[in-house]
Amino acid sequence: MSRRALPSRRAIDNGSIPLASSLQQKSRSSPFLTIGLVLVVAFLVIGYTYTGSGYDSEKDALNRGEGISCTAEVQRAIPILKKVYGDSMQKVLHVGPETCSVVSMLLKEEETEAWGVEPYDLEDADSSCRNLVKKGIVRVADIKFPLPYRPKSFSVVIVSDSLDYLSPKYLNKTLPDLARVSADGLVIFAGYPGQQRAKVSELSKFGRPAKLRSYSWWIRYFIQTGLEENQSASKKFEQVANKRSYRPNCQVFHLNSHS
Ligand SMILES: *[C@@H]1O[C@H](CO)[C@@H](O)[C@H](O)[C@H]1NC(C)=O
Ligand SMILES: *[C@@H]1O[C@H](CO)[C@@H](O)[C@H](O)[C@H]1NC(C)=O
Questions:
Q1: Which of 230, 235, 237, 256 to mutate to test the pocket of ligand 2 (most atoms within 8 A of CB)?
Q2: Which residue puts its alpha carbon closest to atom 14 of ligand 1?
Q3: Which member of 2, 21, 173, 197 has the lowest number of beta carbons within 10 Å of its beta carbon?
Q4: Ligand 2 atom 5, closest CA
């Protein structure tokens, strides 16, 4: 389920058995070797704990049996996006399920205005979320239809999860519309193929099961529909992410706004 946590867990599971047995055999012959091996084991365990700690949001989601949420990933990526888009992160629109969580987080940042579009329903919204809706900061809107905003209303538009539930026919309308309302870029968070997504019981909310598309599918799709990748933003995102050892659990694409 967890794409990144699993291989490291496996590496330790495989590694710990031979290590433990060699520990027993060699403990008679060399105490130094034993200490060395104990240190190696401790190091592996600490390493695993450390790697695991970065995926709290994902683990929380998994514990709730919800699968991976790219909206949670947006929250983790906000500091990186701020580095990449700089001043352009002052007027942000987030589109995706549980947008209130992202909008609230962005509003806590200095000099940042944020709005949200919730593509599904807000049945179980808490009071702070209902407050955002009352103020008109968060709207519920079907993203299959043009968004109720003028061109270039926002500097950066970030969309998570929702595109995974749209067929190409609707993607053809929705993606250019998201690019239309942005001025300095459109950032897409999409699931990786093979990831566990929302439960079957939530399908009525999304209308259809998620279709998780591969990296090459998306790139081909962008080319077909004339959407251009923002190469410099993609490169910068990768650089900043590497520097901070941040590995997104979702695919992240940076597209140009329509000029
Ligand atoms: C989406 O748009 C592209 C490019 O305009 C077109 O080639 C493709 O057939 C469209 N797909 C659908 C399902 O309408
Ligand atoms: C490309 O990304 C940079 C941030 O790295 C941004 O400032 C610029 O406006 C983007 N270009 C377009 C055309 O969206």
A1: 230
A2: 169
A3: 21
A4: 233
CA dist., res. 96 & res. 114, Å (int): 13
Predicted local confidence at residue 241, as pLDDT: 97
Full-prediction pTM beyond 0.70?
yes
Question: Which pLDDT value is given to residue 28?
Answer: 52
Q: What is the DSSP string of 128-166?
A: HHHHHHHTTSEEE--TTS--SS-TT-BSEEEEESGGGGS
Token couple for 170? 């609707």
Rounded CA separation 219/246 (Å): 22
pLDDT digits (tens, 9 = 90+) for 99-152: 999 999 999 998 899 999 999 888 888 999 999 999 999 999 999 999 999 999
pLDDT for residue 32: 62
Q: Please choose from 172, 217, 223 the residue to mutate so as to test ligand 1's pocket, defined by most ligand atoms within 8 A of CB.
A: 172
Give the closest residue (by CA) to ligand 1 atom 7: 224
- What distance in angstroms lies between residue 210's CA and the mean position of ligand 2's atoms? 29
Amino acid at 36: G
Residue type, 48: Y
CA 59 to chain centroid, in Å, comes to: 13
CB burial of residue 246 (10 Å; 0-12, 13-18, 19+): middle
Q: Is 257 in the pocket of ligand 2 (CB under 6 A)?
A: yes
* Ligand number with the minimum distance to the CA of 184: 2
Cβ distance 183 to 157 under 8 Å? no
Burial class (CB within 10 angstroms; exposed 0-12, middle 13-18, buried 19+) of 253: buried
Cα separations in angstroms, 6 against 13, 64, 112, 251: 10, 18, 36, 18
